[in-house]
Design a protein that fits this description.
537 residues; mainly alpha; two-stranded antiparallel ribbon
Length: 537
């Protein structure tokens, strides 16, 4: 097993290094290595991955005793749902790209449309494959399966790197035109410049509705493409860890935790208020930021919203961590690759925003920290670091606690054993009286059953369980709005101009385009972890 994991890991490492060398050469020496060369390499990798996926679905998984066990923790419904959502948006993104290229048929090679078509096939096949097989613990053809999974992981990583690089290029073109030539020329600049090469600069978007729809649709859907590849990597890694894994019936959890809103009141109310205010702030920011010169007040409003929300989230996480400590629940020490990956992803993805915050702190302290906007950015950066740390501690602590239902059943089993030894059976008269009383009670209506069920759930939850559910739900909604704002284009860290002037245009842009995708992924992954904490409470 160790040898197979080592060999497949080395295969993925070599593929990633080869692809990274191509990408770096394209960026720094675009004459020798063009974007078409990178596309050809990635297309070859995609075809190899597709061949392995088809072989796995039609051959490996259908062999006798191939899938004896399924990991109940792998591929939760929220993760598979986000996979389908991001996959659908990524397919639509490539459709818009094809349409955009067709409109510019006079200055673009139509051979380029082959690459988006291959990517559509790759995205669709991979999404269907992960939806049906993400829980598999395959017991045959271990080495071939490990190598196939690692090759697919490496391909997704390279596609993510290419998406981030291309996003950097066309965002840089837009920002330079925005500063130098004004908004009217922005409409003529092509957002697809990074993916099309230098000849795209000669192509201007005709003044037609179709061209504007393809252009705006591409810009809107672009962030979902990067998220899709990251989600695929995480799910494929769990499959790779589960190759050859045997799960005993003692370790397998037969309890299916369902998401219910019963027992929570204040968390949804406060979270919904945060979401509604955040949407208003986001819309006002987008309206102002798309003008020729972003207004200073809109940055003050944006950072003020964060400065109010982040301390509330940090306080909620600290209180939740304290409640976890007071509960004294048993830790879940069973081997769980999904949980281990969740912890790694939370810690790793948080480094993106934390790193950007430290760069901002240094730039502000070294320039003019007493200015109003600079003071807000400084407070925002410090609070963001603290919020990431407290939220990670709360989520990781909650993921390592045994689910509440399992703990109750264990205690009941213990009490049942004690009663079996030390207690006497009930008297026959008492049992007869109870049965008569049950038969004489009138049946309840459906509305009364629902109301009594809600009251029963809320009243029988201890104050610790109620508090944990309220906190988790509140933080879920807060992370959703903090995911929406940067995903759909609110990037004040680049548009405020402070760090850009301090570090230089290219350096700060590299920092932002490394940290922002990780920050977006962190918020999305935090939602999944918090939902897990909520459900198990």
């Amino acid at each position: 097993q160790k040898a197979g994991q080592l060999f497949s890991g080395l295969l993925a490492m070599n593929v990633v290094f080869l692809g990274s060398a191509f990408l770096s050469s394209m960026i720094f020496n675009h004459v020798a290595i063009t974007l078409a060369d990178v596309w050809i390499l990635l297309s070859i990798l995609k075809v190899l991955c597709l061949c392995w996926v088809v072989y796995y679905v039609l051959g490996t998984s259908r062999q006798p005793h191939a899938v004896l066990h399924r990991d109940t923790h792998a591929g939760p419904i929220w993760l598979r749902g986000s996979l389908l959502l991001f996959g659908a948006f990524s397919v639509l993104l490539n459709v818009f790209e094809i349409g955009y290229s067709v409109i510019h048929i006079q200055c673009k090679s139509q051979v380029q449309n082959v690459f988006p078509c291959i990517e559509i096939l790759f995205i669709t096949t991979q999404a269907v494959f992960l939806w049906h097989h993400s829980k598999d613990c395959i017991q045959v053809q271990h080495n071939l399966t490990r190598c196939g999974l690692m090759l697919t992981i490496a391909t997704n990583l390279l596609l993510w790197l290419l998406a981030v690089t291309n996003d950097s290029i066309h965002e840089e073109i837009e920002s330079q035109l925005h500063v130098l030539q004004g908004e009217d020329l922005l409409h003529k600049s092509t957002k697809l410049g990074g993916r099309k090469g230098n000849e795209t600069a000669l192509c201007t978007c005709p003044n037609t509705t179709a061209c504007k729809v393809f252009q705006k649709g591409y810009i809107l859907l672009y962030p979902f493409n990067t998220e899709f590849y990251l989600v695929c990597c995480s799910m494929l890694y769990v499959m790779w860890k589960n190759v050859g894994r045997r799960i005993s019936h003692h370790h397998a959890s037969h309890i299916k935790h369902k998401f219910k809103l019963q027992g929570v009141v204040f968390g949804p109310l406060l979270g919904a208020a945060a979401v509604m205010i955040g949407i208003c702030v986001f819309m006002m920011y987008q309206i102002q930021a798309t003008g020729s010169a972003p207004n200073r007040q809109v940055f003050v409003m944006y950072y003020s919203y964060y400065i109010v929300l982040l301390p509330l989230m940090s306080a909620a996480a600290v209180i939740g961590t304290i409640i976890h400590a007071l509960e004294k629940k048993d830790l879940d020490t069973l081997k769980n690759p999904t949980r281990s990956l969740d912890v790694i992803l939370l810690m790793g993805a948080a480094l993106g925003q934390i790193g950007m915050s430290y760069f901002s702190i240094v730039a502000i302290v070294a320039t003019n920290p007493r200015d109003l906007l600079n003071s807000l950015i400084l407070s925002y950066s410090v609070l963001l670091i603290f919020q990431h740390i407290t939220q990670n501690v709360f989520i990781i602590d909650g993921l390592h606690r045994r689910p509440f239902v399992e703990a109750v059943e264990a205690r009941r089993a213990g009490h049942a054993g004690q009663h079996a030894v030390g207690s006497e059976p009930p008297h026959e008269e008492t049992a007869t009286a109870n049965s008569k009383q049950e038969h004489t009670q009138p049946p309840l209506s459906k509305e009364e059953e629902v109301s009594l069920s809600y009251i029963h759930t809320y009243s029988h939850l201890s104050w610790k369980r109620k508090a944990l559910r309220e906190i988790s739900f509140f933080m879920v909604l807060c992370n959703i709005i903090l995911w929406i704002m940067p995903t759909f284009g609110a990037h004040p860290v680049f548009e405020n101009g402070l760090e850009k002037s301090f570090y230089g245009y290219s350096t700060w842009f590299a920092i932002v385009n490394f940290g922002l995708p990780l920050g977006v992924f962190y918020r999305m992954h935090s939602v999944g972890g918090l939902l897990e904490v909520y459900v198990t409470a």
